[in-house]
């Protein structure tokens, strides 16, 4: 359970975030937590809710709804909302958490990374590590750090090589089974990054230039053949995840097809394609968007080690 | 025994893995950005004492292991088995085989206390206290006054264990040993 000073710090941070966006004319909106369509991402599990006639999903993030709002209004918007992910439970995860997500029409990915730093600079009472680094958060290219360590391009390395490197990390890996699909490539890359590469990086950094198989809903940069995506890491924990947003409905449909294959290969339930979302994506202005975990932000800001120290009534003992 | 899912794994939980009883040392839920969730678990094999790291699919479960730890007193060995008695006034006795007493027995003299791990009521591991006081039965003669050079020599203890001791220590003296490292700690305080 959080101490009272932690709850006070959280409240001050939320107030500072709203003030930051107010000053930049980014408008707060609220989208529904219950939705008719669930995320098609193969690695996210939605809570399902029944209202007798319909099956509804608790949102895993407000992404689809905020993009539909962008399609209608075309304005810079943000939301601070609960998000729900079934099965995500650990010292850095809680099945229900608070997410800050915002979208910036006409922003590039680096504009948005700069704004993330600006937002953190606007927060009260920064911890020492932020005070020392705020002007200079290192940016690593996933492609470059991977090539430096393994001598292979993460888009092109053979799946058999990736799998062999995973098994050479020292841990006995039983959570992955080889599949001939992009999700398996992505899972191997994730594991190698976590186990082998990340321990040698700074404790606060941006990661960019993700491999194609980890593009999610980000645009691909044809020059580098990498996804226009960034993550912000702090003390081993992912704090924020941003994209130059994909707007082409045909591309979204093909990403859905890849995830559908991954779901079938892993025996996961299939998720219907959300046509309204795909159509809305085509109507969005060119924009960059980012989601930031508020509970994790409070955790690192208050120098806590676990979410349970900053979240009221965390699972499983709520 | 009940089954335990990865989100119930916590330090000290006893589970069966590949037929061996194990104790969970550490369990961490890991979920990369958009990647497959897994649990990174450190386990100690209670038969071999080996600690290793293994990843599990989140939500996977393992069968619990019927493992109990008792404080016991070492009584004697008949050459094939080593006999221990519970210290809870039940006077209950058990016999442990060579595999179970393995490393731990070299630190135990008669009537000394230790921890015995039982799996399905059969002893699988005997662990001596972290620190034991034992007499030296054999070592090279001590060098009088040599307390400063920091050299060492082997010494055989009454239980048969051999440890390195400073040059000034003599036969008949009682010394304190850290059983986890086998290192000499000093002369026994009570001696």
Mean of the pLDDT scores of chain A? 93
Q: Supply the CATH class of chain A.
A: Alpha Beta
User: Gap between N and C termini of chain B, in Å?
Assistant: 48 Å
**Assembly type:** heterodimer
CATH topology of the largest domain in chain B: SH3 type barrels
- For the record, the CATH architecture of chain A stands as 2-Layer Sandwich
Largest sheet of chain A: 8 strands, mixed
The share of residues in helices of chain B is under 10%
Q: The CATH topology of chain A, please?
A: BirA Bifunctional Protein, domain 2
What is the mean pLDDT of chain B? 89
What is the total domain count of chain A?
A: 1
Radius of gyration of chain A: 19 Å
Helix content of chain A: 25-40%
- Low-confidence spans of chain A: pLDDT under 50, at least 5 residues? none
End-to-end span of chain A in angstroms? Answer: 10 Å
Which value, in Å, is the CA radius of gyration of chain B?
Answer: 21 Å
The major beta sheet of chain B can be summarized as: 5 strands, antiparallel
Which terms summarize this structure?
heterodimer, A: 318 residues, alpha+beta, BirA Bifunctional Protein, domain 2, eight-stranded mixed beta sheet, three-stranded antiparallel beta sheet, 20% strand, B: 191 residues, mainly beta, SH3 type barrels, OB fold (Dihydrolipoamide Acetyltransferase, E2P), 3 domains, five-stranded antiparallel beta sheet, 1 helix, 16 strands
Structure summary:
With 318 residues, chain A is α+β, with helices and mostly antiparallel strands. Helices cover 37% and strands 20% of the residues of chain A. Chain A has a single domain (4-138, 202-309), classed as Bira Bifunctional Protein, Domain 2 (BirA Bifunctional Protein, domain 2, 2-Layer Sandwich), CATH 3.30.930.
Structural write-up:
The complex is a heterodimer of chains A (318) and B (191). In chain A, 37% of the residues lie in helices and 20% in strands. The longest helix of chain A is centred in the first third of the chain and has 20 residues, at 4-23. Chain A has one domain (4-138, 202-309): BirA Bifunctional Protein, domain 2. In chain A, β10 and β11 (226-227) form a beta hairpin. Chain A has 10 helices and 14 strands. The termini of chain A are close together. In chain A, α6 runs parallel beside α7 (182-197). Chain A has an 8-stranded mixed β-sheet with strand order 1-5-6-14-13-12-9-7, sandwiched between helices. A 3-stranded antiparallel β-sheet of chain A has the order 2-4-3, with no helix packed on it. Chain A has 318 residues and is of the alpha+beta class. Chain B folds into 3 domains: 3-63, SH3 type barrels, CATH 2.30.30; 67-127, Nucleic acid-binding proteins (OB fold (Dihydrolipoamide Acetyltransferase, E2P)); 131-187, OB fold (Dihydrolipoamide Acetyltransferase, E2P), CATH 2.40.50.140. The longest helix of chain B has 4 residues, at 98-101. The model of chain B has no long low-confidence stretch (mean pLDDT 89). Chain B has 191 residues and is mostly beta strands. In chain B, the strands form 4 sheets. In chain B, strands 9-8-7-10-11 form a 5-stranded antiparallel β-sheet. Classes of the chains: A alpha+beta (318), B mainly beta (191). β8 (172-173) of chain A pairs parallel with β5 (51-57) of chain B.
């Amino acid at each position: 359970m959080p101490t009272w000073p932690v709850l006070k710090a959280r409240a001050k941070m939320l107030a500072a975030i709203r003030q930051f966006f107010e000053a930049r004319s980014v408008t707060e909106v609220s989208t529904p937590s219950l939705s008719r369509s669930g995320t098609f991402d193969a690695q996210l599990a939605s809570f399902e809710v029944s209202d007798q006639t319909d099956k509804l999903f608790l949102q895993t993030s407000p992404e689809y709804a905020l993009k539909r709002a962008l399609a209608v209004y075309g304005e810079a918007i943000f939301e601070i909302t609960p998000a729900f992910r079934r099965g995500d439970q650990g010292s850095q995860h809680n099945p229900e958490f608070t997410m800050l997500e915002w979208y910036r029409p006409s922003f590039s990915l680096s504009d948005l990374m700069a704004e993330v730093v600006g937002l953190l600079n606007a927060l009260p009472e920064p911890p020492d590590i932020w005070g020392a680094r705020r002007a200079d958060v290192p940016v690593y290219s996933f492609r470059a750090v991977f090539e430096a360590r393994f001598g292979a391009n993460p888009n092109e390395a053979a799946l058999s090589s990736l799998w062999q490197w995973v098994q050479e990390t020292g841990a006995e890996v039983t959570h992955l089974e080889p599949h001939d699909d992009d999700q398996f490539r992505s899972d191997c890359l994730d594991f190698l990054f976590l186990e082998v590469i990340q321990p040698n990086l700074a404790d606060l950094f941006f990661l960019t230039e993700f491999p194609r198989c980890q593009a999610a809903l980000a645009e691909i940069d044809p020059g580098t053949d990498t996804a226009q995506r960034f993550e912000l890491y702090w003390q081993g924990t992912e704090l924020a995840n941003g994209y130059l947003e994909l707007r082409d409905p045909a591309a979204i449909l093909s990403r859905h097809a890849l995830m559908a294959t991954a779901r079938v290969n892993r025996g996961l339930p299939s998720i219907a394609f959300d046509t309204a979302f795909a159509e809305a994506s085509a109507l969005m202005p060119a924009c960059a968007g980012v989601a930031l975990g508020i509970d994790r932000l409070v955790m690192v800001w208050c120098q806590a080690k676990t979410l349970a120290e900053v979240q009221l009534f965390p699972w499983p003992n709520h | 025994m009940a089954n335990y899912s990865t989100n119930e794994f916590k330090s000290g939980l006893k589970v069966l893995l590949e037929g061996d009883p194990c104790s969970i040392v550490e369990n961490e839920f890991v979920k990369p950005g958009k990647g497959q969730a897994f649990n990174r678990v450190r386990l100690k094999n209670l038969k071999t004492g080996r600690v290793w790291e293994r990843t599990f699919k989140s939500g996977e479960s393992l069968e619990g292991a019927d493992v109990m730890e008792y404080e016991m007193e070492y009584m004697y060995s008949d050459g094939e088995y080593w006999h221990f008695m519970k210290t809870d006034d039940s006077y209950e006795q058990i016999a442990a085989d060579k595999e179970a007493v393995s490393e731990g027995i070299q630190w135990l003299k008669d009537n000394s206390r230790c921890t015995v791990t039982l799996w399905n009521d059969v002893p699988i591991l005997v662990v001596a206290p972290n620190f034991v006081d034992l007499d030296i039965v054999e070592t090279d003669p001590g060098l009088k006054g040599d307390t400063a050079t920091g050299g060492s020599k082997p010494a055989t203890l009454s239980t048969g264990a051999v440890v390195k001791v400073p040059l000034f220590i003599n036969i008949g003296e009682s010394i304190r040993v850290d059983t986890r490292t086998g290192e000499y700690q000093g002369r026994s305080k009570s001696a």
